Amino acid sequence: MSSTAFSLGTYITRNIRSNRPLLNNYDATSLRFKSQLQKSSSPEHQLVQAANEKPTLCTRREAIGFGFSIALLDAVCQPQLAGAAEATPCELTLSSSGLAFCDKVVGYGPQAVKGQLIKAHYVGKLENGKVFDSSYNRGKPLTFRVGAGEVIKGWDLGILGGEGVPPMLAGGKRTLKLPPELGYGMRGAGCKGGSCIIPPDSVLLFDVEFIGKA
């Protein structure tokens, strides 16, 4: 007997009083049950009756089990599909400030207010794709006062909005592409011994997740 077919239901065999030995009429491959043959004094009548009988579908308990399996599969697949959609590159929109942006996930909460203490996760990359910093790797989001000059200008503009850039909403994820003048400009950052983590005049890419008010 197939263990898969009875994973969420129980099949109880019934004894049939007949001149023939007891048969297991459950077809595990096709998931169908055959109706029991009724007694008849005529063997020919038994054959005709058996030929005319139609197999019945799965029992209600097995149908519920099958439906549960489909629902479980859907629940597993949905996050994967959402993750795949989020990972798909989106088209950047260039604003009048020179900042380019693209919303991967539109937020659902309130927008930030200038001077407000907020939390945000981010991944910072050079234009060649090299990651130079990530709050995810540290396991802690960045906390700062937005619009107060505590971060580079491109960050304040990219989160608060303005100059053709819409404000981010809490829970949103946005990609920002900063020209040098909205980043670290001619001085670069992390420079030591003639080498810089962020070279001068670098175009920077940030994947920003605006968590909300700190």
TrEMBL record:
Recorded GO CC terms: chloroplast thylakoid lumen
Enzyme Commission identifier(s): 5.2.1.8
Catalyzed chemical reaction(s): [protein]-peptidylproline (omega=180) = [protein]-peptidylproline (omega=0)
Pfam family, any one: FKBP_C
Record key words, sorted: Chloroplast, Disulfide bond, Isomerase, Plastid, Rotamase, Thylakoid, Transit peptide
Chain ranges of the PPIase FKBP-type domain: 115-214
Main location: plastid
Compartment annotation: Plastid, Chloroplast thylakoid lumen
Keyword Plastid set for record: yes
Database matches in InterPro entries: PNSL4/FKBP13-like, PPIase_dom_sf, PPIase_FKBP_dom
GO molecular function: peptidyl-prolyl cis-trans isomerase activity
Annotated family: Belongs to the FKBP-type PPIase family.
Protein name as annotated: peptidylprolyl isomerase
Organism from which the protein derives: Pelargonium cotyledonis
